[in-house]
Every structure is written in structure tokens, then in C-alpha cells.
Specification:
Elements lengths: L5 E3 L4 H9 L4 E3 L11 H12 L8 E10 L2 E3 L5 H11 L3 E11 L4 E12 L4 H9 L20 E5 L2 H5 L3 H11 L8
Parallel strand pairs: 1-2, 1-3
Antiparallel strand pairs: 3-4, 3-5, 5-6, 6-7
Length: about 190
């Protein structure tokens, strides 16, 4: 039986790459949803719901990710200066990459949270500046991309690595296996 293509409520190239890696068929629709502070689970729900009208019976996937360090939330830095401040604040510390994931169909809606702990090595101001100049921080929660040069900032990862890249893959696979068994190569 061929599975209906998921409808991904995201334009993130990382999320697309992870779904391709998992061989989960999908189509992309940009969500009509404005993130404004708040919880990543709420944002994932908002993104999924914003495109649900285009689903035509297909499951919809919404995801949002943020970084939390010592109680402070780090979203996507608006400029290079803020990216440098974020990276300096994360240096030598362990932070949480928190993703909200919403999977919904015409009959049900599931929303869960995934947390991965990432530890940065100590960083000099020169190392931070050299990373910021690459521009890789743009559009990234916490101001870094672990799948790129940002890997050089990290000393340890505890949990789902792909969650840090942009999609809590283990959580998604578990939910698909439980709710749509056999349809997406899992369960």
C-alpha cells in the first residue's frame, strides 16, 4: 500500500533533507503562521493547522525548534551581532534544543516535544567571530548549524542528533509507526 504524501508545513531545507533521508514521501507548503515568542509545541501546532486546509486527506507535519540555555530562550538571531552574543552565551555550556512536533489528520491531532542536550566547547571571541562571518547562523535557532561548520563548536550531543539539525526524526518515526503503521516504512 502506498502512503499518502505528508504535507510538510515548513520551508526548511534541513527538514526536507531529513524526510528524504528517512524516505518519507512529502510535499511542502509554506505555513501561514507568525511565530511570536511562546512554546515550540504551540508553534508546531499553529504551522500545521495553517496548512491543514490544503491537506486533502493527507497527514500534516508542523515542526518548530528553539534553543534554551539556563532558562533563556534563543531563537533565530536577527543579525550578526546577536548571533555572536548567542554563541558567546552558549560557549562552554550545555543547552537544550527543544522541538515541538505536530502531526495531524482529518481525524486526530498529536503534538509532542523532543529535547536534545548539546554542549559547546569553550570558544574564544575570535572563534565566535570567525563562525559568524560564515553566515551559517542565519535562520538558525541558537545561531548555529550543527550539520555544517557549527559542528566544530560542539563537544557533545545527548539525544536525537537530527532534532538539532531541524526535525526530531525519532519522535516522528515513532508517531508514524503508532498512528499510521506500515504506511511510511515504519511500524
Amino acid at each position: 500500500m502506498s502512503a499518502a504524501r505528508l504535507l510538510l508545513a515548513s520551508t526548511s531545507p534541513q527538514r526536507r533533507a531529513i524526510l528524504e533521508q528517512l524516505r518519507i514521501p512529502f510535499d511542502v507548503v509554506a505555513p501561514d503562521y507568525v511565530e511570536d515568542g511562546g512554546d515550540p509545541v504551540e508553534h508546531a501546532i499553529g504551522k500545521a493547522r495553517s496548512v491543514a486546509g490544503e491537506a486533502r486527506g493527507r497527514p500534516v507535519l508542523g515542526v518548530d525548534t528553539t534553543v534554551v540555555c539556563e532558562g533563556r530562550v534563543y531563537g533565530k538571531p536577527p543579525d550578526a551581532g546577536e548571533a555572536a552574543r548567542m554563541l558567546a552565551a552558549l560557549a562552554g555550556r550545555t543547552h537544550e534544543v527543544v522541538s515541538g512536533l505536530c502531526l495531524l489528520t482529518d481525524g486526530w491531532e498529536l503534538a509532542e516535544r523532543e529535547v536534545t542536550h548539546v554542549t559547546f566547547r569553550e570558544l574564544t571571541a575570535r572563534e565566535v567571530a570567525a563562525y559568524v562571518v560564515t553566515g551559517e547562523w542565519e535562520g538558525r535557532a541558537g545561531g548555529y548549524a550543527i550539520q555544517g561548520l557549527g559542528a566544530s563548536l560542539v563537544s557533545a550531543v545527548e539525544g536525537d542528533y537530527l532534532n538539532v539539525v531541524g526535525l526530531p526524526a525519532a519522535l516522528l518515526v515513532r508517531l508514524l509507526a503508532e498512528r499510521l503503521p506500515g504506511q511510511y516504512g515504519v511500524g
